[in-house]
């Protein structure tokens, strides 16, 4: 490819709104351009990268026995009404009407559409298993689109859906996809980890997320260096502490804590560690008020809490709290509330605490030296409701947890029969019985993968793509392409030879200043470059440098194509 016939448009500065390295670099390198909030054009250079990621995904999906199809992006409401998700999907779904006032959505995902295909096309166990996949734009009206294509509204997803006769076979399909994902992310040169994930509202029996490890990741993952254990913090179990509750040493007393509403302030004021304090969080589900108790240095796990009641939780308003507890938030606590109608749920850690500090249910006061069964009855419920922290015991009992940050690039999910039962997607088994199909779904955020790859591969000069995701394998940079016939002849010849050898070559024939061309190539992240200048040519040499190397080396012009090819294909 000649740069003059392609389109490269780079910028010196990234827009101020770009926070993440990948977002800044994708804009500066001209891979994407913003159209509106969460809407991006993939410029020619960016699209080349996206297509390379797609190619790896397609090869591995096909290799794993999945078959590609393409479903409509626009979906009729009726299908979503069959599964009940039209009403519960919420504002993430972009709803649209056609000219006949009929309801549609722009597909945020495709379980309903693919299940409709399956129920119409699959009759017999002989047609199973089957795994359909597509690579297609999804739309989710994200509340906070940000970080460029990392969390966009329109984004490219590979979504696959497996259909099996029974749970045993679903397990095999699931494992097949898990293995394919491992191969895909390995081939893409990413440092990643597969972690157990919450099965959430979709239900289902098993779920793993593929997380690319990066400081900037939105997800927290807990893992145990001594064992295989790895889970999203949303799911990771906080087990009961090894040290159990004992007789408290103190007796309960009320202490004035003027204007001190947070555990931090109270602990500092009382000269105690934050670990001696208990935080009371009040939520409402339906008509029931709940008080969740977690240790002052811990945080409430929203996903775990959601599972404690049938109806969704919302924070209690200040008025509701005052009406029920007769005290402003900031000074509330569990003492004296056991028979108030509030359901008191203590975290496992809190249930084992002695001599703790909590709100006194009296403005500007806290209680210290509080002990279970002495100053208040045991809570109505003891549950795991907090996020794990570093140093917690691993739930598998094999060591201590560490926390890392990750970017979710893929998700595999054993769905079971939720969709097939709701939509009557049945098959006839070997004995002539009608059975619901067992389903799995498997997503990869194709466009997010590009951003994630950049988060792991950059330096102060720009992107340092591994070959699998680089827009070109090598850049040929002639010095004085227009002026020197010798330079032009060698540049053209290398371009043609390397292209003929099956490599993706960029020849920068725009005859710009050398410094400008080199800086641009480094920004874009092409993994190899060869500079052709008259001086080195006179010695029968060209200058080679890998993007990740500090210095260039001279290589003989003779056999240069073969030498370069071997470096690229290393
Ligand atoms: P997240 O938790 O990041 O919102 P999700 O769990 O809702 O994602 P899935 O339904 O599992 O997403 O979708 C499959 C994949 O699509 C995700 O693993 C992720 O890589 C990608 N993806 C999801 N939402 C977005 C988005 N707004 N922008 C870019 N990629 C996305
Ligand atoms: Mg997910």
User: Roughly what percent helix?
Assistant: 25-40%
From the N-terminal CA to the C-terminal CA, the straight-line distance is 22 Å
Q: Which small-molecule species are bound to the chains here?
A: adenosine-5'-triphosphate, magnesium ion
Low-confidence stretches: none
Helix-strand category: alpha+beta
Give a structural overview:
The protein has 16 helices and 31 strands. The protein is of the alpha+beta class. The strands form eight sheets. Strands 3, 7, 8, 9, 10, 11, 12, 21 and 24 form a nine-stranded mixed β-sheet that branches. The protein has a five-stranded mixed β-sheet with strand order 16-14-15-17-20. Strands 28-27-29-30-31 form a five-stranded mixed β-sheet, sandwiched between helices. Helix 1 crosses helix 12, helix 2 runs antiparallel to helix 6 and helix 2 crosses helix 12. It starts with 20 loop residues before the first helix and ends with a helix. The structure holds adenosine-5'-triphosphate and magnesium ion. The site of adenosine-5'-triphosphate (ATP) has 15 residues, from strand 8, strand 21, strand 24 and helix 12. Adenosine-5'-triphosphate (ATP) binds next to strand 8, strand 21, strand 24 and helix 12.
């Amino acid at each position: 490819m000649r740069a003059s016939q392609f389109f490269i448009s780079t910028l010196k500065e990234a827009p101020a709104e770009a926070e993440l390295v990948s977002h800044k670099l994708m804009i500066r390198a001209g891979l994407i351009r913003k159209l509106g909030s969460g809407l991006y054009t993939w410029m020619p250079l960016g699209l080349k990268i996206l297509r390379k990621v797609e190619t790896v995904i397609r090869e591995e999906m096909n290799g794993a026995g999945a078959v590609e199809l393409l479903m409509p992006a626009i979906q009729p409401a009726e299908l979503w009404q069959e599964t009940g998700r039209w009403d519960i999907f919420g504002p993430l779904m972009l709803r649209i009407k056609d000219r006949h006032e009929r309801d549609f959505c722009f597909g945020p995902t495709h379980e309903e559409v693919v299940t409709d295909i399956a129920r119409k096309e699959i009759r017999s166990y002989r047609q199973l298993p089957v795994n359909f996949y597509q690579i297609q734009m999804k739309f989710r009206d994200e509340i906070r689109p940000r970080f460029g294509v990392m969390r966009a509204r329109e984004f490219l997803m590979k979504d696959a859906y497996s259909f099996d006769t029974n749970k045993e076979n679903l397990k095999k399909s699931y494992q097949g996809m898990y293995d394919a994902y491992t191969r895909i992310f390995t081939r893409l040169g990413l440092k990643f980890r597969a972690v157990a994930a919450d099965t959430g509202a979709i239900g289902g029996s098993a779920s793993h997320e593929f997380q690319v490890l990066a400081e900037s990741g939105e997800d927290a993952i807990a893992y145990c260096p001594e064992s295989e254990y790895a889970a999203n913090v949303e799911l990771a179990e906080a087990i009961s502490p090894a040290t159990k509750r004992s007789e408290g040493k103190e007796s309960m007393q009320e202490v004035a804590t003027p204007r001190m509403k947070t555990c931090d302030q109270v602990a500092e004021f009382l000269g105690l560690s934050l670990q001696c304090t208990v935080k009371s969080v009040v939520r409402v589900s339906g008509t029931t008020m709940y008080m969740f108790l977690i240790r002052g240095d811990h945080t409430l796990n929203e996903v775990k809490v959601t599972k404690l009641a049938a109806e969704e939780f919302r924070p209690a308003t200040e008025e509701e709290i005052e009406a029920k507890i007769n005290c402003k938030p900031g000074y509330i606590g569990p003492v004296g509330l056991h028979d108030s109608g509030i359901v008191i749920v203590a975290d496992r850690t809190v249930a084992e605490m002695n001599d703790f500090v909590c709100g006194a249910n009296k403005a500007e006061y806290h209680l210290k030296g509080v002990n279970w069964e002495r100053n208040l009855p045991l809570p109505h419920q003891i549950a795991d409701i907090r996020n794990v922290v570093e140093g917690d015991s691993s739930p598998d009992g094999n060591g201590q947890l560490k926390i890392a940050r990750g970017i979710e690039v893929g998700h595999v999910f054993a769905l079971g029969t939720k969709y097939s039962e709701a939509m009557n997607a049945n098959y006839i088994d070997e004995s002539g019985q009608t059975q619901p199909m067992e389903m799995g779904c498997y997503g990869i955020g194709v466009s997010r993968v590009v951003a994630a790859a950049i988060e792991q591969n950059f330096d102060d000069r720009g992107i340092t793509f591994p070959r699998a995701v680089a827009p070109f394998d090598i850049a040929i940079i002639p010095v004085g392409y227009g002026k020197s016939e010798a330079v032009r002849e060698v540049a053209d010849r290398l371009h043609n030879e390397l292209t003929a050898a099956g490599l993706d070559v960029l020849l920068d024939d725009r005859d710009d200043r050398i410094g400008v061309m080199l800086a641009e190539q480094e920004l874009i992240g092409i993994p190899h470059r060869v500079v052709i200048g008259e001086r080195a040519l006179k010695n029968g040499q060209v200058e080679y440098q890998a993007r990740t190397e500090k210095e260039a080396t001279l290589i003989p012009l003779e056999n240069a194509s073969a030498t370069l090819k071997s470096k690229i294909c290393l």
